[in-house]
């Protein structure tokens, strides 16, 4: 069994692309297990991660591909939440969506993806979004 942690924000296109890349990994869907994590930085309405459209989008794709998945949620720093979950479940891979940002933007504002890549201590796959998405 190959265990993947998928970090999902509110971007449905990124979630769909990440989920598709996981589905396209070698092996049958039954050989993969995914834990989707969404970290709330602000949640005044008290929503759960399963109510987030991007999380549902990824879950729908996993259902179609026959991939077992679970949904986790946290609050606070998304990069820390992704890395802590991956460590807790001893994930084989972390998958996150990347964004096109200028070098100055990366240096000034940081990035969840960049933090995960540099600090995860396990393989990280970064996906983009297809131009037609």
From TrEMBL:
Residues 3-127 form the UspA domain. SUPFAM superfamilies: Adenine nucleotide alpha hydrolases-like. Transmembrane segments: none annotated. Pfam families: Usp. InterPro entries: Rossmann-like_a/b/a_fold (IPR014729), Universal_stress_UspA (IPR006015), UspA (IPR006016). Belongs to the universal stress protein A family. This is Universal stress protein family protein. It comes from Halogranum gelatinilyticum.
């Amino acid at each position: 069994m190959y265990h993947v942690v998928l970090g999902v924000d509110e971007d449905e296109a990124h979630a769909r692309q990440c989920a598709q890349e996981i589905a396209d990994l070698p092996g049958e869907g039954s050989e993969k297990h995914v834990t989707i994590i969404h970290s709330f930085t602000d949640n005044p309405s008290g929503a759960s991660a399963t109510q987030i459209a991007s999380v549902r989008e990824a879950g729908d794709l996993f259902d179609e591909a026959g991939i077992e998945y679970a949904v986790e949620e946290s609050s606070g720093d998304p990069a820390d939440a992704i890395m802590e979950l991956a460590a807790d479940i001893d994930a084989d891979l972390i998958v996150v969506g990347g964004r096109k940002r200028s070098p100055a933007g990366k240096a000034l504002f940081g990035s969840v993806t960049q933090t995960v890549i540099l600090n995860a201590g396990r393989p990280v796959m970064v996906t983009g979004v297809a131009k037609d998405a």
